[in-house]
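We treat protein structure as text, and this decision shapes the records that our systems exchange. Below, we set out a record of this kind in full and without editing:

***
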Amino acid sequence: MRIPPGSIELHEAAQKYGLTWGGLRKAIDRKRLRGFKIGLTWFTTTKEVKRYLEKRNADKIPLKYRKKA
């Protein structure tokens, strides 16, 4: 199976947006973020993460789901 264009691994998305992989996975499980799995790797899109952060109001995301500086 091919990875659709514009896709980003969840680990990369977490690092890029200062969140944790687990937090993004929970968001996918709770249907707050769209994601998909190919093999053992989870993916989403940059556009989808931005939509999630805008909708979620990033300042209100609990600290335990944010990456520690």
Observations:
- The chain has one domain: 7-58.
- The longest helix spans residues 46-56.
- The radius of gyration is 11 Å.
